[in-house]
Amino acid sequence: MKLYWVKTHRLIKKLFPGFVWDVPNKEKMVYLTFDDGPTPQVTEWVLDLLARHDIKATFFCIGNNIDKHPNIFKQVIAQGHTIGNHTYNHLNGWKTDYNTYMQNIDDCEKSIAAHSSQGRATLFRPPYGKIKTAQAKAVRSKGYKIIMWDVLSADFDTSITPERCLKNVIDNTHQGSVIIFHDSIKAYSNLEYALPKAIEYLKEKGFKFGKLA
Questions:
Q1: 115 included as an active-site residue
Q2: For the chain, what is the mean pLDDT?
Q3: For the segment 87-123, what is each residue's pLDDT rounded down to a tens digit?
Q4: Contact (CB, 8 A) for 58 and 34
Q5: Residue 143 has pLDDT above 80, yes or no
Q6: Is 176 left (phi over 0), alpha (psi -120 to 50) or beta?
Q7: What are the C-alpha distances in Å from 100 to residues 89, 92, 95, 103, 145?
Q8: How far apart are CA 152 and CA 23, in angstroms?
Q9: What is the H or E stretch that residue 124 is in?
Q10: Helix, strand, or coil (residue 15)
Q11: Which residues are 182's β-sheet partners?
């Protein structure tokens, strides 16, 4: 059985105040984020859906995927979404030594810079949400904000139903929530069902959608 928090507990947020878990605001704004792309067909499907709803979001991209699919990466930027660094090889910080981890972040940044005229990314999300204290300190010293999440859709979990994925989002989202989905092949079955319905539900409830900065 896989264990994870669908809704990030207040205590966790207090224990790690240097991370961004949600973005309090007075505009009933929430923030859609997508990890692990760019991925052919999947990322493009997400972009089309967001465009139909006039929503801007934040994409935490894997450097290796950027290099493999630069045209899709450029589409993300061209449509006005924010780009974040998600390491070059989707490394688990808890299982990776300091130098290797930091170099992997730098390698992702090089991929972003090579295919974007917007300059370096200023947002970073650690794959799996796992990062050591020394790594986090170094990442922040490079000028990144470390973006975690408040609501986990768990679309990556192939053992849950698409309906459960949707419920994870609509039951836990509140004003300021940072919601995480994945534009990956593994997540697509749940994503394809849950994302459109989550957007419709949240819009009906009066929520607005913003991109992180």
A1: no
A2: 94
A3: 999 999 999 999 999 999 999 999 999 999 877 899 9
A4: yes
A5: yes
A6: left
A7: 11, 11, 10, 5, 20
A8: 15
A9: strand 123-124
A10: helix
A11: 35
Give percent of the chain above pLDDT 90: 89
| Residue 65 identity (one-letter amino acid) | N
Catalytic residue among 69, 81, 86, 182: 182
Tell me which H or E stretch contains 32. strand 29-35
Which residues does 73 contact at the CB level (< 8 Å), separation at least 6?
A: 38, 61, 65, 66, 83, 115, 116
Helix (H, G, I), strand (E, B) or coil at 36: coil
- Token duo for residue 6: 């669908």
Between 13 and 181, the more confident residue is 181
Residue recorded with tokens 């910080």: 93
* Three-class DSSP category at 200: helix
Q: From CA 71, how far away is CA 11, in angstroms rounded?
A: 41
Q: How confident is the model at residue 2 (pLDDT cuts 50, 70, 90)?
A: low
Active-site option among 35, 36, 150, 155: 35
Structure tokens at 7: 């809704």
pLDDT in tens, 11-54: 677 777 789 999 999 999 999 999 999 999 999 999 999 999 99
For 133, the token pair is 């204290």
Q: CA 147, 121, 134, 63: dihedral to nearest 10 degrees? A: 100
106 is a catalytic site residue: no
